[in-house]
Specification:
- The protein has 256 residues and is an all-alpha fold.
- It has 2 domains: 1-113; 115-256, Orthogonal Bundle (Farnesyl Diphosphate Synthase), CATH 1.10.600.
- Helix content is 76%, strand content 0%.
- It contains 12 helices and no strands.
- It has helices at residues 2-5, 11-35, 41-51, 68-81, 86-112, 118-128, 131-142, 148-151, 154-182, 189-197, 201-233, 238-253.
- Helix 3 runs antiparallel to helix 5 and helix 9 packs antiparallel against helix 11.
- The longest helix is centred in the C-terminal third of the chain and has 33 residues, at 201-233.
- It starts with a helix and ends with a helix.
Length: 256
């Protein structure tokens, strides 16, 4: 994954990207292990609120870390933010906050033993999966030549959501047995569909597969019909177009 995010990056750049992915994976496992079994929602909120303090936008002082998640975040944030513009730093911080805040949503469902409805699940799954963090890392690798306004367009947001949903659904299908039978997880698209439609596992897998197919087709349609218009609307030169196509190619790897 880290090589696909930064295929032409230097060794230090690749290392930094890998650190973010490792940190996110570790923190995602650490959080429910610490607060899920104890059903400690209050402690979880305090834990999450403290994380922002380790991502200062002005490179100011930070509190003393009290656990591995805080210590790791402080380290890689300082190494990443120093080379970013103020706007990019703010957007990157928001992507991390969205991911960590989504863990509270998962924990609340776990405590209530509540299987979410499909619409709620799909919207939140992108955050719990760390999709925005992964895509933010990919954008950083493209440099500053692509205007940030492009990433906020309807076409690019739908392109990113299509790729993210496909990757999330793929993960849920392959992880279903491990998560449901062995871990007691309730945040899985197959289980969400089973519960919502009152159907069996094979039928739910078929529905999820159909959703994946529709996301893949949406991605291909946007690339073929909307991306050329985006190039013209923003009057991108050849170099910027090449970089944006490079970013789209990275998104496409999520569909493979």
């Amino acid at each position: 994954m880290r090589a696909l995010i930064h295929p032409k990056g230097s060794a230090p750049e690749l290392n930094l990207t890998a650190c973010w992915l490792v940190w996110g994976t570790y923190a995602d496992d650490y959080f429910p292990a610490l607060y899920g079994h104890r059903r400690d929602m209050a402690g979880a909120k305090v834990f999450n609120a403290r994380l922002s303090a380790f991502m200062p936008l002005d490179s100011g002082p930070i509190p003393d870390p009290t656990n591995p998640v805080e210590r790791g975040l402080a380290d890689i944030w300082s190494r990443t933010a120093s080379s970013m513009s103020a706007n990019a730093r703010c957007l990157f911080r928001r992507a991390i906050q969205d991911m960590t805040e989504s863990w509270l949503w998962e924990l609340a469902n776990q405590i209530q033993n509540r299987i979410p409805d499909p619409i709620d699940y799909v919207e939140m799954r992108r955050k719990t999966f760390g999709s925005d963090l992964t895509m933010s890392l990919s954008r950083l690798a493209q440099g500053d030549e692509i205007p940030m306004e492009i990433y906020r367009t309807r076409s690019m947001r739908q392109l990113e959501n299509s790729a993210a949903d496909f990757a999330c659904f793929t993960n849920d299908i392959f992880s279903y047995q491990k998560e449901i039978e062995f871990e007691g997880e309730i945040h899985n698209c197959v289980l969400v569909i089973q519960n919502f439609l009152n159907c069996d596992t094979p039928q739910a897998v078929e529905v999820v597969n159909n959703l994946m197919t529709s996301r893949a087709r949406q991605f291909e349609h946007i690339v073929a019909t909307e991306l050329p218009i985006l190039f013209e609307d923003f009057n991108l030169d050849a170099s910027a177009r090449e970089k944006l196509l490079g970013y789209v190619e990275k998104l496409q790897h999520l569909l493979n």
